[in-house]
Design a protein that fits this description.
55% of the residues lie in helices and 4% in strands. The protein starts with a helix and ends in a 7-residue tail after the last helix. The chain is mostly helical. The strands form 2 sheets. The protein has a 3-stranded antiparallel beta sheet with strand order 3-4-5, with no helix packed on it. A two-stranded antiparallel sheet has the order 1-2.
């Protein structure tokens, strides 16, 4: 029997969703008119000045999130300007595909949100080809002896990066699952599953926390070290990495049905919810950092919210509430504390942090915007499942 309080709560939430969606439509419409097919990353004084399609920036890992926003809006609104801008970005990204020696493991982030999204929504064969090129390049980074996908070509975290993996890569695996589906060739999915298994063994910890980086022996896959990466230190708990673990493992469960991945996603989710609730539902940059200074990372919250909503789709009804409530709390508290709804300025979600030890302060990050939009659309039932 539905209680009166539950009904009022549902009405309040629906009102928040509709108002937030309305504000997103106004803001993102203005941004689309202003930005078009330029590729933004983060604003400077409220303006996207840097165009990531210029020079070496074209290889940046964040370059798929603006077209991802555009395709989500095109799916939700049907307005041609979003399609035109997204296609403009997609064409610019061809330079990165053909300069592939400069790319690393983040091809899923880039081409799932651009070419693969285009193919799924419009049936473009050229976009399908681009997606498969990216999938083959990602598969080419697979180490068959170690059963993992190599993350970077060069890095400050190790003299030789041949054995490095990071938790973020779990979000690139859907590109390989997609490629297996459209080609009816299981080898792409085998690579994705092997990497997810290795991440389970070396990245995820028993308490639900995770390492950012795992250094493996490239000849055997043996775990050698866990450098601190973008968190406070080795053994700490970088919150965006925790969010990647929640969503990434849930997505591997979606594509494989392997309950080990679902259980891993649950452990990571419970750990994230417990820690985020202690900081008022705006996540700290690292859950195991010192009390001072205080650094937030709103991007971790928007990513985790989408991961929790993904989890809620795969669990029995009596479990859904925990994950849905967590997502609601993250999105609404971040919106209240850090969102910028002025359509004359760029970026929706402020309060992000690239990494714990950077000197850039709290920033607006394009991926925080993408996941905030995806989360709101999922709650409204208007999302385009891009993963």
């Amino acid at each position: 029997m539905e209680r009166k309080g539950d009904h009022m709560k549902m009405e309040e939430r629906q009102a928040w969703l509709e108002d937030t969606y309305r504000k997103l439509c106004v803001k993102l419409s203005a941004e689309c008119d202003r930005i078009g097919s330029r590729i933004p990353m983060e604003p400077d004084d409220g303006v996207y000045r840097m165009d990531m399609s210029e020079g070496d920036n074209i290889f940046g890992w964040t370059n798929g999130f603006w077209p991802g926003i555009l395709w989500q809006m095109y799916h939700a609104k049907g307005e041609e300007k979003y399609l035109a801008a997204a296609r403009g970005v997609e064409e610019k990204l061809d330079r990165a595909l053909h300069g592939f020696t400069r790319l690393d493991h983040d091809m899923g982030f880039i081409w799932m949100h651009s070419a693969v999204a285009d193919y799924r929504l419009t049936g473009s064969e050229q976009s399908r080809t681009r997606g498969l090129m990216a999938a083959n390049l990602l598969a080419g980074r697979y180490n068959p002896e170690g059963r993992f996908i190599r993350v970077w070509n060069k890095t400050r975290f190790a003299e030789n990066s041949a054995g490095l993996i990071i938790v973020d890569c779990l979000m690139n695996l859907p590109l390989l699952y997609w490629a297996s589906g459209v080609t009816e060739d299981p080898r792409f999915a085998y690579i994705a599953k092997h990497h997810a298994d290795t991440a389970l063994r070396t990245i995820l910890r028993a308490d639900g926390s995770c390492n950012h980086i795992a250094m493996l022996d490239p000849g055997t896959g043996e775990l050698l070290d866990t450098p601190g990466g973008q968190g406070y230190e080795s053994g700490s708990s970088w919150s965006r990495g925790q969010a990647w673990a929640v969503y990434g493992m849930a997505l591997s469960y979606r594509h494989t049905g392997n309950y080990e991945y679902l259980d891993a996603a649950k452990r990571a989710a419970h750990y994230f919810i417990a820690n985020a609730s202690l900081s008022g539902w705006v996540p700290l940059c690292d859950f195991r950092s010192p009390m001072e200074p205080v650094y937030w990372d709103t991007s971790a919250g928007t990513i985790a919210a989408c991961g929790l909503l993904e989890l809620a789709e795969h669990v029995p009804s009596y479990e859904k509430n925990l994950y849905e409530e967590g997502a609601w709390n993250l999105l609404t508290h971040i919106e209240s504390a850090w969102n910028n709804w002025d359509p004359e300025t760029d970026a929706v979600v402020y309060g992000g942090k690239r990494s714990y030890h950077d000197n850039l302060g709290q920033r607006a990050l394009i991926y925080a915007d993408y996941f905030f939009l995806e989360g709101v659309l999922r709650l409204l039932g208007r999302e385009f499942m891009i993963w």
